[in-house]
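Readers of this paper often ask what the protein records in our data store actually look like. Such a record has a labelled line for the sequence and another for the backbone structure tokens. Nothing more is needed to write down the fold, since each code stands for a local backbone conformation. The remainder of this section carries one protein's record, kept here as part of the documentation.
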Amino acid sequence: MATTVGLAVLAGMITLWLGLMAHFGSWSTAITRIRRLPCQTGLPWCE
């Protein structure tokens, strides 16, 4: 019983971790693209 619960919790944590990594990975890509937009428009705060 305890082993089953432990495996279920572990699987849930791994699923949550992978979901967060995928979510923030896509967000970091989006933020990078947003930061590059000023370069294309010629604004002074371009990185």
About this structure: The chain has a mean pLDDT of 78. The helical segments are 2-41. The chain is about 85% helix and 0% strand. The CA atoms of residues 26 and 32 lie 10 Å apart.
